[in-house]
From TrEMBL:
It comes from the Bacteria. The lineage of its organism: Bacteria, Bacillati, Actinomycetota, Actinomycetes, Propionibacteriales. Residues 6-230 form the ABC transporter domain. It comes from Nocardioides albertanoniae. InterPro entries: AAA+_ATPase (IPR003593), ABC_transporter-like_ATP-bd (IPR003439), ABC_transporter-like_CS (IPR017871), P-loop_NTPase (IPR027417). PANTHER family: ABC TRANSPORTER, ATP-BINDING PROTEIN (PTHR43335:SF4). Keywords: ATP-binding, Nucleotide-binding, Transport. This is ABC-2 type transport system ATP-binding protein. The keyword Zinc does not apply.
Amino acid sequence: MNELVVETDGLTKRYGDRLAVDRVSMTVMRGEVYGFLGPNGAGKTTTLRMMLGLIRPTAGSASVLGLPAGRPEVTERIGALIEGPGFYPYLNGRDNLRTMARYQGLPATEVDRVLEMVDLTDRAKDALKGYSLGMKQRLGVAAAMLGSPDLLVLDEPTNGLDPAGMADMRSLVVSLAAAGQTVILSSHILAEVQEICDRVGVINDGRLLRESTVAELRGGATLRVRATPEDAALAALMRIAGDEGVRRIGNETLEVDLPATDAPEIVRHLVAHSIDVHEVTVAERSLEDVFFEMTGTTTPGEELVS
Ligand SMILES: Nc1ncnc2c1ncn2[C@@H]1O[C@H](COP(=O)(O)OP(=O)(O)OP(=O)(O)O)[C@@H](O)[C@H]1O
């Protein structure tokens, strides 16, 4: 357990004056879905390309499966879908994968296995030009899964997909993770990362701002209490949560930094002080709120619209 699959140390890439990746030190553990999150141009693809050994770092290092990135014995244990899959349009799905499998010295049964995994067995005999973008992306994941790689790297796998295609891709990643596959998934879609990732690295302007579990990043939930008279409620709640643990947020409502399990105690306490409790709700911060606080800029989602 807790085996390191990827470790980067001060990983840096400079293009002329542009520092695309700036001293990134990140870790990915075996069996987790790691969300690499950041707005467009943040440095996600450049970092992944260094991990895959496709480009050389200007400084720092990346090790994958305990060996320096780029070594052939490492590269062959990574499956990647990066910048859209390249297929032969006139071949069908199965023959496209067979060509790749043959090149890698893998048997035809391996093609059937990965087709089944991405739920394309029924359409495997159709020519690729009839595939939707979502199907092509799924075939791309199937190609990346040939030979059962130890690490699967998916760069923006839902980019350009319609909502149904996105949901499809998300459930595919979840099913691969359930089967024990280690996945690095880059995305600028916060809700997506929140839904399917165990841990997240947030990158902005080439720098890794934070690396933690999604739950840690979002912080604990808070309680919102609407009670009157408000001043008396504030004083009473401060005795439980401390002066810093309670804030007024308007509409006779107070925000309290206590877990949801404390709600009954809070209500009892207020009622014992003759305070009327009108409503108690649990407020969870979304990853989007957190991202906004961390970068102080627009969320990646908003950038998409521009
Ligand atoms: N080959 C290159 N030559 C020059 N600059 C580059 C090159 N590749 C990337 N960059 C620059 O490095 C920065 C990071 O780019 P990168 O593609 O890694 O970001 P990203 O987070 O993957 O963004 P996106 O979500 O748009 O794919 C950008 O400013 C980009 O313009």
